Amino acid sequence: RRRLTMAESSWPGSSPPCSAWLSSTSSAAPRAPHAKMSSSRLFSSTSPAPTFTVRTTRSTSTSSCDYSEGQWVRAAGHARRYNGTECNVKGSEDCVRNGRPDTSYLDWRWQPAAPGCQLPGFDAGAFLGAVRGEHVAFVGDSMARNQAESLVCLLGASFPYHLVYSDPEPGTRKFWRWAFPTHNVTVSVYWAPFLARATGRCENYSLPYNSVHLDALAERWSGDAGTMDVAVVSTGHWFWNPSVYYNGSEVLGTHLLPELNHTGIGFLSPYREAIRASIRRLASAGRARAVVVATFSPAHFEKAWDDPATCARRLPYTEGEREVDATHAQLRSIVREETAAAAATDGGATRVEVLDVTKLATMRPDGHPSVYMKRDPFARGVPERLQSDCLHFCLPGPVDTFNEILLQLLLTKRE
């Protein structure tokens, strides 16, 4: 195999590299051996074929509502459920503490489009009751972490909890774990931006691209898969970055790296393979569980990533004002298709749920930290250039709605 050369590649369009504020894989905690896949067929499995039941974002507990389509409607105080500082959210997403002057982004709720459907507000007691004695794990990129921290705060506003493990390296949130003793529930987050094993830029932002091994899942989360009772898989943003994709030592192709003289394969096919492999790994881990695969939650960079006004909107989009981007729709479809394909037989031990958040996230350009990812960003005037976070959501904020839907999926699972 020809030795690959290092080459710089720029982020397409006006958006910044997602990795500007995403964490890397940790080496602090003990790791289990990574899950190596058969080289004869990408993501093939030697374990018995798992069985699946697939659901989308619907719940019989609320008249089989479909939450994937709808609109944001005003609801004073709906998202004012916790203090982000008190529950130790990532500092760059603690928008109130950081001085964001407007808080109207907390006064909206998601109204499903189907007639007669309502999405109930989050009920911490119902959630903990649904997962009593279980391990709830979030696996993926920093949007998985964003949702995990939202869940911990929503639960912690009503029930005691404590941090069991956090990365020893200051400022990183690669692998964290919390415990809720009243219900013997554990919540964990696993940093795995490609789900598969990856090195390069995702570990060291000074490097020009990622090397992603699609024949092996990331070590930590795949090694712990057997302990997970509810696994929420959420990824997508890192796939947009320049990458070389491998099957073993063979280069399958590249994304945004024409200078390496390998076939450009984009990122949709690697994304599909990673989702497929992750579902199979979780389904073959030897016990009944719920696997919840979230669809893509898009960013809202409207100008250059370091323009202070790149995501300065203060209201959600209204119906018809903003459509789901074509590529985002493709990523959404891949999740739907792969979860549906996993339904080999009905009534299986593993139930695969689709947490479809693409539309509701698309409609919330106002919910990001923007320049308030840093504390008091205008304390010394208005700089010409200022980094903004238009990817993650403020905590509290719109991502809490992801967990409202997750609760309904889990209640359906228990029924």
Task: Describe the protein's architecture and organization.
The protein is 19% helix and 20% strand. It has seven helices and 16 strands. Helix 2 packs across helix 7 and helix 4 (268-283) packs parallel to helix 5 (326-341). It has one domain (59-199, 220-236, 266-414): SGNH hydrolase (Rossmann fold, 3-Layer(aba) Sandwich). The chain starts with 51 loop residues before the first strand and ends with a helix. The longest helix is centred in the middle third of the chain and has 16 residues, at 268-283. Mean pLDDT is 86; it is low at 1-41, 43-56 and 58-63.
Mean pLDDT: 86
How are helices and strands ordered from N to C? EEEEEHEHEEEEEHEEEHEHEHH
CATH class: Alpha Beta
> Low-confidence parts, pLDDT < 50 over ≥5 residues?
1-41, 43-56, 58-63
Indicate the CATH architecture.
Answer: 3-Layer(aba) Sandwich
Whole-number total of structural domains: 1
Pfam family, one: PMR5N
Keywords: Disulfide bond, Glycoprotein, Golgi apparatus, Membrane, Signal-anchor, Transferase, Transmembrane, Transmembrane helix
Membrane topology: Single-pass type II membrane protein
GO cellular component, one term: Golgi membrane
